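Archive entry: two folds, one per protein. Generate the first.
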Amino acid sequence: MNRREFIKHSAAAVAGTSVLLSACRNRSAKTAALLENEPQGTMTMRVNPNNGDKVSVLGFGMMRLPVIAGGTARENPDSPIDQNAVNDMVDYALEHGVNYFDTSPAYCQGESEKSTGIALARHPRNSYYIATKLSNFSPATWSQAESKAMFERSLKYLQTDYVDYLLLHGIGMSGGDKDGLGAFYARYMDNGILDWLVQQKQAGRIRNLGFSYHGDINVFDMLLRWHDEGKYHWDFVQIELNYLDWNYADEINPRNTDAVYLYDELEKRGIPAVIMEPLLGGRLAKQPAAVLRQMHRINPEYSAAAWAFRFAGTPKGVLTVLSGMTYLEHLQENVATYSPLNPLDSAEWDFLLSLARDIYELKAIPCTACNYCMPCPYGLNIPRIFSYYNNCIAEGHMPELKAQGDPEFVRRRRAFLVGYDRAVPALRQADRCIGCNHCISHCPQRIDIPHEMQRIDRFVETLRTS
């Protein structure tokens, strides 16, 4: 199949998909019942200026797929993916205009690409775009042979002979004993694999070549400089963008980069932006009551999640906004938000940026529950600890140590400690951290995880002895 055939993606193919889908599967009664709440409009589409692809502004992130035991592979790593549920969600997504599916060899305990391939192969290949990544994080995969093998496995698992959007995964992250720049050269330059990927693009096995950025801004700037110089051409770039990270990413964590800088650098070059973490790992979907009241005063029709999704989809240079969806209910709400997208006006944009300052002052931990830090060699459930701590802040339940002795402090202290023990088993709590630093190099948010564990442990111990 040649490149010309690859780019024959048309609106007619997408529009006609619902007719073809009806013969592909029988839905469960639960799924059929959920479909009664249909979106009122059609999915907003964005045109890729590089090749004319019509891409849904909502992209389906395949990193939090449901498992048979319930929840996701992160929560129940030994449980197989619920393929029937995945099939139902993919069917619903395609029927409602979602046509961008983002996966990786690293997602869902290495099973995401297989599950994605099974679900998508039931539909015409020209009705969707597949994005996957060269996720060669481990030094064991840095050789050219291992990296090539990873790409070939992706094609096999996805049941396709080409990838629409291929990303160098996690550019700027450190790896092994190397910093962000050193890891980039080891993963993609010293082994010649980037030049090989360019050859695969020329051969039509990759339609768009880009990268996802985490961490070292010097690496991001270098790759864009190469783009300017014509050394390498980036068809798209994936960045983290939400209304908290727009101006406060580097204040929350000095090793992160504000989204306003990342987006502006792409926009002035005409490089389409693919957005990840529009909800910041779900954090922006769970707001304190005071924040929710402000949102409702502005517009009571939108949930906290919808506000965040509208923010991420508003900039004109955004091609698609990824959402890692586990349940059909999540997919339905997100489809409704983008069918069609009601972009933020200037007043709403300023309102969310003002809220970001208030949220930043809560001093939560910028964990997105990506699970790259796991498993911890000493058994800590790092994402669960951070999630519980952040949720207590977001929901206004955090006991304030300065109020010790106050009846409200006593109530909140007990609720926090009981909830902590229920959410995180005793042998997996923060006090088990010995500061080995094994997790730090794996964190895309570049959180000093041992430091945060020690801080949480001190807080918990203070509550226990109060």
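Generate the second and append.
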Amino acid sequence: MFKFIKNKSFYADFFLIMLAVVEVLAFLYNTFSWHLNIDEREHLYSSYMIYNGYMPYRDFFQHHHPLLWYVFAPFLIWFKNSHLIWYVLRGFGVVINVGILYFIYKLGKFTGLNKKEAIVGGLLYFLFEAVWSGGKEFRPDNLGILFFIAGIYYFFCYVEKTDFRKLIVSYILFFLSFMTMQKIVMSLIVMGGIILFLPRDNKNIKKELGWLVVPICGILAYVGYMYFEGALKDYFELNWLLNLKLTVAGILYRRTIFIVPVLISLICVCFIKSSNYYCRALIIMLWAQVAIVLWYAPYFHYFLPLYPFLVILIAYVSKRLFDKKDIIIFSFFIMAGIGRFLYWFNSYYAVHLSSFVRLTKVELSLSDENDEIIPGDIWTGGLRKNALGYYWYGWSVSLLDYKLFKRHEFPDINKIIKEKKPKIIAHIDAVMLGCLNEKNEQDLGNCKTLQKIDKSLLESDYMVSDFIYLRRY
């Protein structure tokens, strides 16, 4: 069968296109159906706060870099009071993924892949579980990856034709990637090493270093802005001190799950003996990502920066070892298809995005735009101000050390309720799954997940379980 396909390029291409279409449609279905992640609510809330004129770090808790929220905040002009916001977020993520695939394709062509092979390299991005989980979500990682690999592409364009305009664009994109997520700094250091030390005709190295003034000015401008806004100390504590306190204990299983792409990386390096500057640069970057995730990767989405480089090199090795044999390409897509089928099968009874959309509709209908809400840990709103104040979700509070952090605003739930009288307490308890899966919106509104506050019953017992931990600090 495969021999017949190999000899008939038209059928081979058609089969490949069909597999690609199925894979893309499957990814889109998953994107707009799979449940909401708590991080997405976190980043929507931050966009909402910025839209309403608040300053990150100074006015509300955050421990990520802010560019994603500034980019998305203008969308709230149209969707600041809409339960459809979750579909908008996921659609925004799809656009980012299209950009990632585009630059994977462009970088693949620098390694010597033809158009078809570079496209296949891009589509192999959907092969990995982390892309199907964190890759579809509204989080800084995906936008940061887009800026970073776009920066590498424009640097390669500069190397190809010594066009300093491309170099400036590259540096700006690297700066934007850093402003999107601070952990990209390790990859930027590796990229700096590639620029300085990977052999090439770099007679213009002094000019290249001189143009670093562009991203440096950008960083200094934002640091100055935070300083004059009184947010610089908070920024340093939350983006660096707090994140350094995150533990990596007990997460070895996450690394174990990803041993397959690491082994593929090893195989890639064993078979690649190329004098191509761009190929060698991507190999170095791939191994840097492997080292980073083996050293520190507490959550699945930390693995995402590895895959753009991995899929390019998989396509490159496939070309070298199986030149003009489409069977290897089909095998990857078939593996991906089987994996996705099992993923859907296992998640059949899970809470889907549409349920969170309906729940948000109820939340918004029970409150006005200026109302404050007391959330549970997986509160789905994100479009109302949080009554808990500065620290608005619990795990971060538990990591704080009084000796390192100047903030001491640890909330007392009863005091907050009595003083602010929030209209809604979004309490999440054991009945959440059944509640969210209800198809009747009227039943959903009466569910214990959402409680409209009776001001005469401020001490009612439904306010206890999820918030008791707040009093420990």
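Annotation attached to the second fold: The longest strand covers residues 372-375. The radius of gyration is 24 Å.
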